[in-house]
Amino acid sequence: MNERQQAYFRKKLLDWKSEILSQSKLTIEQMQTDSLHLADPADRASSETDHSLELRTRDRQRKLISKIDSAIRRIDNGEYGYCEETGEPIGLRRLEARPTATLSLEAQEQHERREKVHRDD
Question: Which residues form the DnaK suppressor protein DksA N-terminal domain (predicted)?
Answer without folding.
Answer: 5-75
